[in-house]
Amino acid sequence: MRIVPIPCLRDNYAYLVICEATRRTAVVDPSESGPVLAALQREGVGLDAIWNTHHHLDHTGGNKELLDAYPELEVIGHVLDQGRIPGQTTFAGDGDEISLGDEVRARIIHNPGHTRGAISYYMPDLAAGRPEGQSEAGTIPSAAAVRPAIRSAIFTGDTLFAGGCGRLFEGTPGQMHASLSRLAELPEHTEVFCGHEYAAVNLRFAAEVEPGSKAVAERRKKVDQVRQNGQPTVPSTIAEERATNPFLRSQVPAVAASAQANESPANNSPVEIFAALRRWRDRF
């Protein structure tokens, strides 16, 4: 299996997921069709499925034109997004499994918070197809180029970002905190492919929340170098997010103290600290 990041719009990412054995291919969150069609041509593959993480136009805007080019596409989204995702054919629920060719199996994780029907596509048992030092990102350079072979991966859309999380448009702080906590429990080596290139600003915020964190400082330096080289910061890992993402760290005393100093949460519970961090980030 190969994962190919595709920069779209101003700061979005779509992704090709290619089963090497069968050449069957899915695209995750095609915000526009042009870059996706160009990537399919470069990779020498057709398109068999669209995996949408939620209904927002900057994640589904390319669906219609891709369906015009490939009318038999399976279009997957959450059952709560019925009528909101263009061309949706499969209405998935939490725990459902989907397949692509012989190699790719993904489990649906329902992540309400950013939207009611937000989902992640989790692939826990990937074949060790990439030798150490070889990029998993195909024709686009990736921060993962020096990592060992990918063992598990997740497409998180706008729920979990590198160093951050999505805004709460349709859900509550409690829902989003529970969704992020669930993702944080995944194996630490899981590679996280998110929906936007927000890592630099997210980590600037993380440094405000935990100014004494060596892990945040080191990750900021790495991210800045990657961006200066014109490369995407995806994927990160669950281990990196646990160590540096303030929205996964609301139980950490230093994070709670910063939230209390800046946003005066109603109490010191992890959900209230999370809500305070999200308000702070919204105006950052």
Number of domains: 1
Backbone CA Rg: 18 Å
- The number of E-state strands comes to 14
User: From the 3D coordinates, which CATH architecture would you assign?
Assistant: 4-Layer Sandwich
How many helical stretches?
Answer: 9
Mean pLDDT: 92
Give the low-confidence spans.
128-147
User: How much beta, percentage-wise?
Assistant: 15-25%
Reading off the top of the CATH hierarchy, the class is best stated as Alpha Beta
Largest sheet: 6 strands, mixed
CATH homologous superfamily caption: Ribonuclease Z/Hydroxyacylglutathione hydrolase-like
The helical percent reads: 25-40%
Reading the helices and strands in chain order gives EEEHEHHEEEEEEEEHEHHEHHH
